[in-house]
Target: Malic enzyme
Amino acid sequence: MASNGVSGLDMEKKSGGGGGVEDIYGEDSATEDQLVTPRTVSVASGYTLLRDPHHNKGLAFTEKERDAHYLRGLLPPAVLNQDLQEKRLMHNLRQYKVPLQRYMAMMDLQERNERLFYKLLIDNVEELLPVVYTPTVGEACQKYGSIFRRPQGLYISLKEKGKILEVLKNWPERSIQVIVVTDGERILGLGDLGCQGMGIPVGKLSLYTALGGLRPSACLPVTIDVGTNNEQLLKDEFYIGLKQRRATGQEYAELLHEFMCAVKQNYGERVLVQFEDFANHNAFELLAKYSKTHLVFNDDIQGTASVVLAGLIASLKLVGGSLAEHTFLFLGAGEAGTGIAELIALEISKQTKAPLEETRKKIWLVDSKGLIVHSRMESLQHFKKPWAHEHESIRALLDAVKSIKPTVLIGSSGVGKTFTKEVVEAMTSFNEKPLILALSNPTSQSECTAEEAYTWSKGRAIFASGSPFDPVEYNGKLFVPGQANNAYIFPGFGLGLIMSGAIRVHEDMLLAACEYTNQHI
Ligand SMILES: O=C([O-])CC(=O)C(=O)O
Ligand SMILES: [Mg+2]
Model:
């Protein structure tokens, strides 16, 4: 980092305050023989230093630093230490009543004084996670065109085909350890937001630093723009992406392949690529294809699965029985639904030594066409086929609940308000403590609210959701809902992969992460 550092400040390598970790494991060596970028980076000082978010400290520059870095006169005389800066900023943030204003204030801070941004995030995780992450990041993506100020990651569009390696070299950092990439086709439960999905990789990577301890400069947010099928965006004069319908098939595959090859060539084989918020069809295919040649994982399939399994195992302490003794019903048979289902089946199989085909039979999925049953086999997408069990056709979720009588109901469909009063009441009629997980994000897409789950179950439901809900008072008792979001696993999981120098992700690693998380719930 010599060419990029500010002499005396030594921020990049310091652990602690800035949230970075020292490179004691030598994980950067994977990148040692990469090609050198043709640019030179000058050492920032004076006015330029104040405009460099990686090194700017604002009023926290000490008298000594103001002398050493030519800052005299460029700042008002007061020196505010970082604690005071934090106090002032938290006070300011709390004045904003509109969540999106808080989001924009946080993004401004990240672009002005990165160190302070992470200090705020680390010290106030519970308060600020819903701002930089779900649910507010969802709204930010929807309005990204109008709130866009500065690029916070790399945009790789069809225009860059054949030049992706060069594009990677335009990014100012070389030692990249984690890339979070989306193509914007399924942003949370909000659908196709095209290029505006950039908010997701940016938000996810800020958690890699705040919760996982990775250096911000080692994190690269990427949005692949192959167009959008969102008519509203296509008509929007402020839309920031390619104004064309999505490329598919070979054209799509070729761009993604060029990207994956360029990443490995530029950053080495130990760079972690986290796939995020791709639509189902591409998500499964990309994961299957690149898990053989790259260090990749899909957060929506595998991250969500590990967190939910950890949560289920922890909740057995409340509801009793072993995992194998429960019956699971999912609403939603996409990435999260089938990912969680498979990891549950795998864990039961590990615990009971029963074959996977057997353990899958206690797990049922409902998609937009109804219960997934054997008679639908022909028309099912490949990732749904393992869940097509023998049963009569059922169309509605409520009927499926009444017929299957699950002990655990999991929503992962991206469609809000689908766990109706009747559904929750049915769950409560045959379970002492029904386990209800409304996982879809953001809050607007949640299958039901915490209040609904507790009220409709008369305080008997064990409830967790993907986006956070406040505690609920019911019948004079306070119920604190759980949060089952992949944010509880991916920063630690990714850090583990990087520290260990792994070059592939295996299922056992996911189960291990899940066991560890369970012990700490
Ligand atoms: O981002 C989140 O809050 C969880 C997630 O991966 C998704 O909903 O796609
Ligand atoms: Mg996601």
